[in-house]
Write a structure and sequence with these properties.
about 130 residues; alpha+beta; SH3 type barrels; 6-stranded antiparallel beta sheet; 2 helices
Length: about 130
Amino acid sequence: MSKEISIVKLMDGSTIVGRIEYGKDCIEIEHPIELISNVLTVNQQLGESISLRPWMAISDETIFVVERIQIITIGILAKDFEIGYEKMVDNIYNQPTNWSGDLYRMEDQIEESELDVDTLTELADAVIKNKIH
């Protein structure tokens, strides 16, 4: 991967920071962190705050492939922000995670339906025919 930290603006509007490697039709982004822009007013003037979050928070991967057709532009991250990026990478990618909640261990929460296929079909027909809202 490149030693330089880059900013990648994607077609979907997201902005990703990470180290990139250029391929023929794609790039690989190592340790991607998404920048979330929030417009705010300060002293009757428009301002902007930037929040950071993992780009693919529930993946164990650290390198992601993006097709070049999905990229608007790429630039180099300003030197003043490199230390902050490195701290975020350490916190996000190098520290153990403590997952909990609905997505974690979902198989423990799944139970078989007590409704048979005929009953489900009747319910679906009733919804389609606007008999159940």
